[in-house]
């Protein structure tokens, strides 16, 4: 993996994120639009279950990364928008389990932002990200493969 966690000397180790992630030259940056708990038909799944919505949104982020040729370990930054940070804090055990199942033990830099609402009615969480992917094919060849 061509990334290194940045942990300033004397700082307590973060739990569930990294303070910084340094990426080696030669990787392509993938900017991932905010993903909510939509299924493939853009139907919101999970209802009022915060953990279920988080898992689906994270799975959607991972689907975008995989489509670009990357893996969960290529995620270098995430911004998680929630409508109720208490729901997030109360579900950290379930969210950690979903993370380990889908991504593994690699953590990107992260920020959690509480917002008054999200665009989609009923959405409780939205995840936006950046991945640094080692691309073996030129970008125009990848675009053609998608069509």
Task: Explain how this protein is built.
The chain has 147 residues and is α+β, with helices and mostly antiparallel strands. The protein has helices at residues 50-67, 85-90, 92-102, 139-146; strands at 3-6, 20-23, 28-35, 75-82, 109-114, 125-133. It has a 4-stranded mixed sheet with strand order 3-6-4-5. The protein has a two-stranded antiparallel ribbon with strand order 1-2. Helix 1 (50-67) packs parallel to helix 3. It is globular and about 40 Å long.
Task: Note the topology.
Layout: E1 3-6, E2 20-23, E3 28-35, H1 50-67, E4 75-82, H2 85-90, H3 92-102, E5 109-114, E6 125-133, H4 139-146
Parallel strand pairs: 4-5
Antiparallel strand pairs: 1-2, 3-6, 4-6
